[in-house]
Design brief:
207 residues; alpha/beta; Rossmann fold; 31% helix; globular
Length: 207
């Protein structure tokens, strides 16, 4: 199995002439979690969006490796997942309808029974046929995690990973991060000092 690695080299970003961050260089290897900390407005979400390919950097690069090979384009999209406020669910569809639709986009194929079982593991037992619009923010967050993990990504990016979650949901995220580090890489952005403990490496922005 190819070993995963992320190389961030000289990454910079500015908006309207104001530097958000500059010259970030970091290497994250399989089995590691990089925690990005800093106050609101320090650029944590911006950095994750650049890493996810949703925003262009001002300078520098982010490279993803499996073994000695750089992966990009469609190959990278199959191996990378982002959980953030930007991940939209469809309120007018049920949880199962959301998962069927979103999994097809990712070219993943699951039976109804398999998806029901996954919903149960994420604390959404018997909610598969309920409209997502009726879900609490915490339930929607659980569904986002389930969607992000459907394709078993090598690279998992998390923005404020425990936001809107109750104690049981926080424990679920803890297990997800531990499991992901066994087979891949986690990069998470947080305002919570307690979540710094997830990281083998930390990057503080806005200092």
């Amino acid at each position: 199995m190819s070993t995963a690695q992320i190389k961030i080299s000289g990454l910079s970003k500015s908006f309207d002439g104001r530097d958000v961050f500059a010259d970030i260089t970091e290497v994250v290897s399989q089995g590691e979690c990089l925690v990005i900390g800093g106050p609101n407005g320090s650029g944590k979400t911006t950095l994750l969006r650049i890493m996810a390919g949703l925003l262009r950097a001002g300078a520098g690069s982010v490279e993803y490796f499996l073994g000695n090979s750089v992966i990009q384009g469609q190959g990278l999209r199959r191996k990378l997942s982002l959980v953030s406020q930007d991940l939209a669910l469809y309120d007018e569809l049920t949880a199962l309808e959301n998962l069927h639709f979103l999994s097809r986009i990712q070219d993943c194929h699951f039976s109804e029974e398999e998806l029901v079982e996954k919903l149960s593991k994420f604390g959404l037992t018997d909610r598969g046929n309920d409209l997502v619009g009726s879900f609490s923010s915490g339930m929607k967050q659980r569904l986002k995690y389930l969607y992000a993990l459907l394709k078993e990504p090598k690279f998992l990016l998390l923005d404020e990973p425990t936001a809107n979650l109750d104690e049981e949901g926080v424990r679920l995220v803890d297990e997800i991060i531990k499991s992901q580090k066994r087979d891949g890489i986690v990069v998470l952005a947080t305002n919570e000092s307690s979540e710094l403990n997830y990281g083998e490496k930390t990057l503080q922005l806005g200092l």
